[in-house]
Amino acid sequence: MRQQSLLNAFWVPINFQNSAILAIAVPADLLRIAGTNHTRVLALLVSVAAALAMVVPPVAGAISDHFRRRGGLRRPVILVGAAINVAGLFWMSRVTTLEPFTIALLIAVLGQSISLAAYQPLIPEVVHRSEWGLASGYQGIATLIGSVLGLGFASFLDPDAIFMWSAVFVIGGAVAVALTPEGRFVDDTEHVHIGNWFDFAVAFTSRMFVNLGLILLMTFVLYFFHDVLGDQTPSRSTGYFGVLSLAGAAVTSFWMGRLSDRVARKNIVALSGVPMTIAICVFAAAPSLHYLVLVALLFGLGFGAFISTGWALAIDSVPQLRDVARDLGIWGLASGVPAIVGPIFGGWLLAHARSPLAGYKTLFFVAALSFALGSLIVLLIGQANRFGLRLRAR
Predict the structure, then answer these.
(1) CA–CA distance from 284 to each of 137, 153, 215 (Å)?
(2) Is 37 domain-assigned?
(3) Does residue 73 sit in helix, strand or coil?
(4) Does residue 394 lie in a domain region?
(5) What is the DSSP string of 343-354?
(6) Cβ atoms of 350 and 359 closer than 8 Å
(7) How many domains does the chain have?
(8) Between vectors from CA 138 to CA 168 and to CA 60, what angle results, nearest 5°?
(9) What pLDDT does residue 390 have?
(10) pLDDT tens digit sequence for 135-181
(11) Is 393 contained in some domain?
(12) What b/e sequence results for 345-377 when a residue is b if at least 16 CB atoms lie within 10 Å of its CB, and e otherwise?
């Protein structure tokens, strides 16, 4: 338990930063910096940051793999990325205009992406394959802790304070990484795969659809509370929604991760989309604060199962462990592409809707459809023979 906790500790600052900054602090700060153009500026800014976060991990991961094959460690790469991240976060807390704010945000994203690329391979290199689901459960718990803390802090503190606290959490995570033992290097003879490239593509596509739904919600929900419901404290309402969702996620996260070591992970991932789809359909049909608790808790039940088993499924799908950092970086495209497309599409949809309410209702229905498609597509794993395909992983 101690090893698993230490191994997954860095997920706490990663998710604190993602939930506090991208979901609340940046949108809230743009209300002041960008004025009436906040929706358009946010869509563009988040998409550019997502493009950077998509490009960097495969490159940084390949560099980390290169040094690992020659007897080096992954920790120095993680710590260098953390230092860059902290520098960007400190700068964000000091700027008051859009241009330097954008540069500082991109520096923080660059640093986090470098750290993430070298950090992800620690789990498959340290943990035995039979316990990857358990490790994924711990990763899910660390994700929830970081996300809850991030949303909680961001709900009550101003954006500048959030940027500073994010830097503090990254520093704390870097200390945990420095104490984390590294596993042995895996040579060319050891492979890990779902079964073939068809299954990899299926898992990848499923994850893209689920992440698209999450991005559409996370990017614009604060502005929904502000622009449609007239909420004068949208940061607090967004944090409240997020914390309730994560409370529901805590119910399913850990034990679903353990269960996925015993049953087909694709079935758990598929089932996770059902409550997420239902919850957002309810919210789209009747977008009101009256249903907030029910919707958030129901959504969280599915989200907890998704994050705790989705990570194990990601490790399962890596074609070859010797290039695990690079390949997990490529797997990250399933998050990066929606993070680019989602804000642009959502911004366009809201800008061309006949009314703000109609725009957000359509946005929520699209998110629900994405969750449903992701759940259905993942069930195609293991069905390559039905399509006449016999593609083996390397």
Answers:
(1) 30, 27, 16
(2) yes
(3) coil
(4) no
(5) HHHHHHHHHHSS
(6) yes
(7) 1
(8) 60
(9) 52
(10) 767 777 788 788 888 888 887 888 899 999 999 999 999 998 888 77
(11) no
(12) bbbebbeeeeeeeebbbbbbebbbbbbbbbbeb
